[in-house]
């Protein structure tokens, strides 16, 4: 160990990412690495020291499912994730991204990202520098930048398909032999340049705002298999998939064949859907069988419901489809509030029925809509739904919804859990979290900026599952930290991080466990072109450390930007 470490963290309660019970230890750090863990005594002193007595010390969190593809090109800060202890983020998920891309096809990728991930076209048009065409050139752009965390990438299928096939891809034409060969070549090129994998979407919900489905929706098995084989020949990268599994047996069997052919790990989003609340268990059983047979497939799961945030300042609200709302939706928020405060407008919009069955189910199923609460409640009891509240109070439920959203100066938020809450509790999520063939993910940081705010799920996983849960069993703290850190790091080939052990990267969080929590989401108008986004802060992170440098103290940026682009798998030593 160096005579004088750069930093020593003294006396913390260490949850080291390996799954065991937390223990008290000091941590010495030098040259961006952990030098020693244990009882170090008074010497050596560090150039800087953190007194962590009574505090929890964890590895930095590794988030394998984000969409900071655009934000990473114009911002050095990947918030909200960086406020929630994330020190490594993987972008390029769900088959969408911005490379490779020919100049004449940029608009197609922007329109797709706008529709799939709720990132406005004007934000992307003004924000993206487009100083690349190939995926290696995109990595060079990211590699020249500095961040508040490390960034790793995947090559997105939609970008590959549009790059190679142009309008034929957008029209969902089958790829011919030459198309498949070129996509496979470009995917291998991306992995050699440093991508950690390939991603694709087979989800009907992924479409542009004008209703066109993602170009990858109907990609045939041989197209996926040929790209997979290209990664297999490189001996690197995983295959990330999102699918509706409408024919679950056939779809899973096809994906299993692709993974077997590729000889590479596969991961896909594993969720409890309200329309098919049994499907997650069917898929989890297939995952178990496939891993037992030697093909590594994991389900990416979320530790809380994926919920739509509904409000008058957000992208949607329960009155979103109604004519009166459409008349004011384009107004700046303060002008919109003038109308919303007008009793005549209130009476008019409440008198207008929502007629679209899909919108009724999404936005007016009152027994499944809840006040978000402050602090937010992510396992709300059925008796706290708007339907139950209105019945108890003897009021009209739509009037109640309107008034709740008018709270906090018109910034009140309702929560409509869409995923993982079919049973009105998180028992299904608990089973998925505990399974050995699942990974924690799906926070979608950087996406759904006016509708979903799940980048905070790392924090709420700790607080809810280890400390605050009252509606069922909790989980051990050491296990939960392992799920957020080492498990994810190893899954994507980053063996140099995700645990607190000598020789590994010094990515750490010092946390006041008793104070740890998430704040109410808030809207900021700080995207390019003045675009709005929902942000969610945390409390209780006394320090977040990346490569040995403190990047945040109590949620406030220090100015240090040690984060870099990660190119390819990383060895432990």
Quick overview of this protein structure:
It is built from 20 helices and 25 strands.
Count the beta strands: 25
CATH architecture of the largest domain: Alpha-Beta Barrel
Terminal residue distance: 15 Å
What is the top-level CATH class of the largest domain? Alpha Beta
Give the helix tally.
Answer: 20
The portion of residues assigned to helices is: 25-40%
Spatial extent as radius of gyration: 23 Å
Oligomer description: single chain
Give the full name of the CATH homologous superfamily of the largest domain. Answer: Metal-dependent hydrolases
Decide which structural class fits the backbone: alpha/beta
The percent range for strand residues is: 15-25%
Biggest sheet details: 9 strands, mixed
CATH topological fold name of the largest domain = TIM Barrel
Describe this structure in words.
By secondary structure, the protein is an alpha/beta fold. The protein has 3 domains: 88 residues, Urease, subunit C, domain 1; 314 residues, Metal-dependent hydrolases (TIM Barrel, Alpha-Beta Barrel), CATH 3.20.20; 105 residues, no CATH class. It is built from 20 helices and 25 strands. The strands form 6 sheets. Strands 1, 2, 3, 4, 5, 18, 23, 24 and 25 form a 9-stranded mixed β-sheet that branches. A 6-stranded parallel β-sheet has the order 9-10-11-12-13-17. Strands 6-7-8 form a 3-stranded parallel β-sheet. Strand 2 and strand 3 form a beta hairpin. Helix 7 packs parallel to helix 8 and helix 8 packs parallel to helix 9. The radius of gyration is 23 Å and the shape is globular.
